[in-house]
Amino acid sequence: MKKAFRSSAACALGLAALAGLGVSACSPFGAVVGAGATVGAAVVDERGVRGTASDVRIRAAVNAAWVQRDATAFSGVGLLIHEGRVVLTGTVNAEDLHRDAVALAKGVDGVKEVYDHIRVDPHAGLGEFADDSGIVASMRKAIFFDKSILSLNYDIDASAHTLYLIGIAQDEGEHQRVLAHARTISGVRALVDYIRVP
After folding, report:
1. Residue 46: what pLDDT?
2. Averaged over 6-23, what is the pLDDT?
3. CA 81, CA 171: separation in Å to the nearest integer?
4. What is the predicted pLDDT for the residue at 182?
5. pLDDT, mean of residues 3-31
6. Predicted TM-score (pTM) of this structure
7. DSSP codes of every residue in 59-120
8. CA distance 55 to 85
9. Contact at 8 Å (CB) between 157 and 78?
10. In this predicted structure, what is the pLDDT of residue 111?
11. What mean pLDDT value characterizes the chain?
């Protein structure tokens, strides 16, 4: 069953800390440990502590706005946040929910841009969600073990076999290495790239 407000960004924060423990960062236990790892990750993350804290605050505010609108309607929506840039993925079952998800995200203080990739699909199934989870896990693993890539600088999600990437590359070479890994991931039919190169 889908977890409410699935978020690969939250999982990414806990990935390094949990890799050696055999614990999923998306599990209830993993989410708690991952949240505790945020400050440690921020030391390495290009955003720094202040930037990471701002994105965490934005995530909480968007989720709170969605819950206030409807406690379950946005459970299929993915939320990536990096430097105040917000990527919305996944599905809702009605167009009015789509409009509200985007409007509520745009209304949160600190949000600079919203990239809307939400699909309206009342028939989205759990099989598709499982496939997308596998894509995300494979991509995280690929960049985590590539020592030429600072993997904590990237947030990843997948929806309907489309892979979404956002973050900061050290340079264009690292950017291209991340994209090269993305193109090797089984099951990916499309790639959406919001990686910034300073």
Report:
1. 67
2. 39
3. 20
4. 98
5. 38
6. 0.76
7. HHHHHHHHHHH-SSTTTTEEEEEETTEEEEEEEESSHHHHHHHHHHHHTSTT--EEEE--EE
8. 9
9. yes
10. 97
11. 81
CB neighbours (10 Å) of residue 125?
Answer: 10
Q: How many residues does the chain have?
A: 198
Number of C-beta neighbours around residue 112 at 10 A: 9
- Please check whether residue 190 is in contact with residue 163, taking contact to mean a CB–CB distance below 8 angstroms: yes
**Residue 124 and residue 126: Cα distance in Å, rounded?**
7
φ and ψ of 158, to 5 deg: -145, 145
Residue 138 CA to residue 96 CA, distance in Å, equals 33
Query: What are 196's strand-pairing partners?
Result: 168
Distance (Å, rounded) from C-alpha 170 to C-alpha 174?
Answer: 6
Cα–Cα dist 110/55, whole Å: 8
- Neighbour-count burial of 171, counting CB atoms closer than 10 A to its CB (0-12 exposed, 13-18 middle, 19+ buried): exposed
Q: What is residue 2's DSSP assignment?
A: P
Query: Distances in Å between the alpha carbon of 173 and those of 84, 177, 178, 191?
Result: 24, 6, 9, 18
Band of pLDDT at residue 125, cut at 50, 70 and 90: low
Query: What's the confidence (pLDDT) of residue 14?
Result: 41
pLDDT reading at 30 higher than 70 = no
Where on the phi/psi map is residue 16: left (φ > 0), alpha (ψ -120 to 50), or beta?
alpha
